[in-house]
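Input.
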Amino acid sequence: MSDFFRYFWIGFKDMWQYSITRNALIFLSVAFFIIIFRRFSIIVRSGGSVFRPYHISNGNFYIHNALYIFDRVIPLKEIRSIDVNSLRAVKLNGRRYMLTIQLKNGKSRGIIFGKNKANSELVKSLKKKPKNIMSKFILFILIS
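Output.
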């Protein structure tokens, strides 16, 4: 078994000498660490779970997706409605949710996250949660 690792290390050192391989690995490493940092930074701010796609606390809607390019903290008073749909496609088979947030300024934001038991419970509780946080918050849940 140690021969395997020795040959692997020799091959890795040979590949590292080529600039294209070295630059590609450095780029992928930096991108990976940025994604991990962005995800954990919003989770620390929101106080939510690592495995949840969003969290509502302190009067804000926190989006835990690290690749989301817009502002990931949306105040609840700026949200007009939230629509949740089940995505259906040839390969997806309804295994994804599409959460669309309609803002009061007319813009909309979309988040796609996986459908599992925990996320299904989170979507069901989304209907009850804003009533406790804010009285004028309107929520439309359309699960098809």
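Helices lie at 2-16, 19-46, 117-126, 129-133.
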